[in-house]
Amino acid sequence: MEKVKAFMKRKNIEISAKRYFVDALGAMAQGLFCSLLIGTIIKTLGLQLNWQILTDVGSYAMAVAGPAMAVAIGYALKADPMVLFSLVAVGWAANAEGGAGGPLAVLFIAIIAAEFGKAVSKETKVDILVTPAVTILIGVLLAKLIAPPIGKAASAFGLLIDTATKLQPFLMGIAVSVLVGIALTLPISSAAICSVLGLTGLAGGAAVAGCCAQMVGFAVMSFKENKWGGLVSQGLGTSMLQMGNIVKNPRIWIAPIVTSAITGPIATCLFKLQMNGAPINSGMGTCGLCGQIGIWTGWLSPSEAAIEKGAVAITPGAKEWLGLILICFVFPAVLCPLINMLLKKLGWVKDGDMTLAK
User: Is residue 56 located within the same domain as residue 87?
Assistant: First the structure.
């Protein structure tokens, strides 16, 4: 056992929830952002402007989502270069075989292939043959064997959430908004979770609402402490910056969570806000305005995941734009500070509790 532990330490193979479900998941979201998400934005612009070159560029970027995710996961796992490059084929196979649930298949399969690749890397005199062969064979064979059922399971669970939200928009609006919003602020990737589940439609709209409640909420209610730099870094960056302060005083999290519980059902019941762009957008909130761009692209050109659930292209009217602006920006900016004022009067929160570390 000691020899095994020593070998794994030497190979930097760390079997832990943090390494696989925080580091790898977060990196996977970045891979998705740099392929599927940005590709969707560019392609939509190309279609709307009738610029074929932009449409082609976007299509090419979208096509390499699987390899981008796998390489990002390998990077997070600190894979050697030969392993990292070999994961391109693994990611393509896992995403293709996984269908609508491809991202979840890529996550599991890329982790396994990367760790086996790391284990054999630089252990033989013919490393240039052994390392890519082991990584690709294990990864692609797993893709053929387990990617389809993983993909179907993820797709089915996402469809269950979508159907439940349609049947119970009020209760599910609260649940999805709160849970995805919390995931966004925790050191895990809400974007990757939404992508894995293929979260679109009303459920996607509730997810966007929850994320915006956290990001815009923390940005505005901590403006006194963090000024414009904090407003931008949290409002357009991530509310995860507040995790250190949440650990010190968890009550500062009450206002954004309550706000998300309010805006979620408003999004699903009143405005019927749907996020039919790439599912990753559902978990992005106002980060680079990706959540709002996802809603916009979903209106004009729904993603494949959304089309499978019955989404169709629409021409947005005043109600759609009003709902987007109120849910994503106005309500969080107003409700969070008001709720936080009440918490201050109760003595649960005080000035300085949300000051970001320099």
Answer: yes
Q: Which residues contact 155 (CB under 8 A, 6 or more apart)?
A: 99, 100, 101, 198
Q: To the nearest 10°, the Cα dihedral for 219, 223, 228, 230?
A: -50
The burial class, CB within 10 Å (0-12 / 13-18 / 19+), for 315 is: exposed
- What's at 339, amino acid-wise? I
Whether 258 and 279 have beta carbons less than 8 Å apart is answered as no
Is pTM beyond 0.85 here? no
Is residue 188 over pLDDT 80? no
pLDDT, residue 358, reads 66
> If phi over 0 gives left and psi between -120 and 50 gives alpha, with beta otherwise, what is residue 349?
beta
State pLDDT tens for residues 214-229: 999 999 999 999 999 9
User: 122: closest CA among 111, 130, 114, 110?
Assistant: 130
Owning domain of residue 19:
2-155
The DSSP element (H or E) to which 120 belongs, if any, is helix 102-120
Give the separation between CA 188 and CA 83, rounded to whole angstroms.
Answer: 25
Does any domain span residue 356? no
Do 146 and 16 share a structural domain?
Answer: yes
Q: Is 317 exposed, middle or buried (0-12, 13-18, 19+ CB in 10 A)?
A: exposed
The string of DSSP codes covering 196-230 is: HHT--HHHHHHHHHHHHHHHHHHHHHTHHHHHHHH
Of 196, 202, 242, 247, which Cα lies nearest the Cα of 222?
Answer: 242
Choose the final residue of a domain: 86, 121, 155. 155
State the total domains in the chain.
Answer: 2
Rg (Cα) of the chain, in Å, rounded?
Answer: 21
Torsion angle (degrees, nearest 10) of CA 70, 100, 281, 176: -120
